[in-house]
Known about the structure:
Blueprint: H1 3-18, H2 22-36, H3 46-62
Amino acid sequence: MDMADRHLNAIRSLTEHSRLPFEVVEKMYRNELLLLEPTARVTRYLPVVTARRVRDRLRTFQTR
């Protein structure tokens, strides 16, 4: 599985759990990824770290 597949799988999983439209979750994911990528030392874990940050943001957003 290449990196693009890992990102796509993470976005799909977040979409299923949040019940938000794919496009909304994808935009959030891409924004977080853009923040993390430039300073990432180990890119292999970017999908995991990015998904965690998006999940945290979604949790905060949904509890309001």
